[in-house]
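Exercise 7. Given the components listed, write out the predicted structure of the assembled complex. Treat all entries as one system.
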Amino acid sequence: MSSGSSERMLRRAAREVQAGMTVNLGIGLPTQILAYLPPDLEVCMHSENGIAGVGPIALNPDRNLIDAGGAYVSVMPGTAFFDSATSFAMVRGGRIDLTMLGAFEVSGTGDLASWIIPGKFTPGAGGAIELAQKARRVAVITTHVDKAGRPKIVEKCSLPLTAKGRVSRIFTDMAVCDVTPEGLRLVEIAEGLSVGEVRQATGTVLLVGDGPLATF
Amino acid sequence: MSSGSSERMLRRAAREVQAGMTVNLGIGLPTQILAYLPPDLEVCMHSENGIAGVGPIALNPDRNLIDAGGAYVSVMPGTAFFDSATSFAMVRGGRIDLTMLGAFEVSGTGDLASWIIPGKFTPGAGGAIELAQKARRVAVITTHVDKAGRPKIVEKCSLPLTAKGRVSRIFTDMAVCDVTPEGLRLVEIAEGLSVGEVRQATGTVLLVGDGPLATF
Amino acid sequence: MPLPDKTCGMEDAVSRIFDGATVMIGGFGVPGTPFCLIRELVRQGTKNLTIVKNDANKPGMGVDWLLASGQVRKLVVSHIGLNANAVRMMNAREVEVEFVPQGLLAERIRAAGAGLLGVVSDIMIDTPAGAGRTQVEVAGKRGYLEPALTADFALIHAERADTFGNLCFAASARNFNPLMCMAARHTIAEAETIVPQGAIDPHAVHAPGPFVHDVVAMPELLEAYGVIRL
Amino acid sequence: MPLPDKTCGMEDAVSRIFDGATVMIGGFGVPGTPFCLIRELVRQGTKNLTIVKNDANKPGMGVDWLLASGQVRKLVVSHIGLNANAVRMMNAREVEVEFVPQGLLAERIRAAGAGLLGVVSDIMIDTPAGAGRTQVEVAGKRGYLEPALTADFALIHAERADTFGNLCFAASARNFNPLMCMAARHTIAEAETIVPQGAIDPHAVHAPGPFVHDVVAMPELLEAYGVIRL
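Answer.
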């Protein structure tokens, strides 16, 4: 994935964040979305290590102020700090309108695998299991294929699940896809790509409407 | 009970509070003990409405600062405020070294009834059930007899229990009694009273040692 | 990225409360009781309410206004000993009263706020007061399943609020307020002072804004708030 | 009635920790991690420890020191992805690792602090990750019994402490610290600044003194606390 397509993906994903929402961005790609939010958007960014109202990446870092991904962030007018139990009370209690999470695999039916590759990589789930199960809306942001070129969007996850059937939308460097009752639907496509190229890189059936496809 | 014997009882009960303790005083008679603590005693008074380090009754009351009994109290150097869940975390978590509670009835085996007189008075337990069950040491402070002259220290409580077998010591206007494996033991007696008078006013067997009895 | 503004008129905020709703009300005695919100709820006459509160205040104050106006179907409280009206109405079966030990009341409210189904506690174990509860064993110890206490609304009194709903409470006026903020599906907070975002130190927030839906200015500091009885 | 003084030397405080103890350690990444206390624990060489912490820090920092010195029998964590040493040791079975979802870890620790036997949660319900848990039904919903996580000791990093043990945490350094203060049988808090009683506003206390047993001055602000990597 080129830095250009990465930036385009992040910029597109940032548009998922709507005014009035409380939003949690997962570790990795998702926290990078923070830099792409419009400065005047009324939104509360939540970080599971105990911040509501996360501000932009700090120009003058405070050693005690990081987001869940370890980035030095800043406060804004109206920021609040709290402990980890209170933070996950927000998550489990349904106060998070949207979470955007990374993925090892995501299925066409909204299953997410993101926390363990048995025998290879076992970092632990962190807060992802609870975010994926309890946020009001779950989006995934991921490269469309892995480093070996294999699809990360699959018919059925081969890895242990983080949550089952909770993902509504998938942002990749190639496409925006929605999980619908009919199946996975291509809703936007990266500029310059063909539907065939996206289908080729996708491990499950991809529904495409009749009308013209928006690009990003 | 004369005001003199009440004051004597409170003064004696106050000596139960030892340096280093965290202590909760129940509503009614017990909270009055606060006024009898030595000013230099190192102790943390806890109030279940969310205060550690309760100070003396306020000379200039703050409308937002009451103890659990509704008295306007003061802060001290080192006072902390917290919510009701945190406050009872201290109670259930075993952080309260001593609680002193009021009683409708208390038995010679340490049972306490203090929260309901079925059909007559049903105020609810407030925090008493948890304090009585979970404080490391439970003392009762009560008049020795009720307004009708009937013993409040009984062989077996007739009222629904607040907690079973948790009371270690009973302070009254007539005596200090300890609940022991052998039974209820008279350990101190109010000045000017005879053992016979105390026994007369007590609804259960009262053990008395051979040696001289301390007075208060 | 400014945070959303949640300020709302008192009448509008309270009009969200519907007949038959379960309403948590903050406060332990006077401190922390949202008397202005309660007065508005009385004015609007919303009926058949289940009120969850530590206590029933004293006669002629707060919850007692709702009892007197016949708006309360049920009280869930830890004690009502200071309100003879409430005791009388309970005995006359004019209101249903459910007693919960104070710390369990706090914890069951918090459990709802934390998105838990309940907690397991050994309070009242092996006493008749524990009757009717489901017993379970955890790590070899017996306890009761204590269900989370949810509510449709919470009425909260804060000393200060910013427009996002970050709240600060004064002294012992904190009590059940932050827990109820968490637990209710919709939380309405009145504040003695409403300040702009940024006026409250992020370290000093007692109830974070994501738990609060409406921030309401108080038309006046009613006498009830200021009572000092010596 | 002054409050008790709980200040204590670092060596004395840490020497209370015995071989085989379960030790909770505050912090999420760097902020809130008590590096000085951990370094002293390494110096004293206490063995066979069960460490409860959100994460295993990064290689060469904090918990990694304890892993490198072979003092850890078991880790209870939410993730260790930032510490390749920990992942390697887990794969080589040199250390046992129990993963708990982060919010459940927080809640199970808090439950111990609140004197509860456990909580009931529907996290991981109907997924293989929930395997091995006891299922119960509360108010018609299915959840797992999640036992309280107790500990013999908690090692805490505070920005400020008074001599009674009232603690304040800086920004995102709060995280698990107040919960672990509550949960451990004995809580040792290091503080960047120790102030006299009365120097902390009673409203600003994040962990009240009754939860804290030893207040320990830090000999130095180790480099680990100050790392700013851009």
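Discussion: Residues 3-149+157-170 of chain B form a domain with the Glutaconate Coenzyme A-transferase fold (CATH 3.40.1080.10). Chains B and A do not touch (no CB pair under 8 Å).
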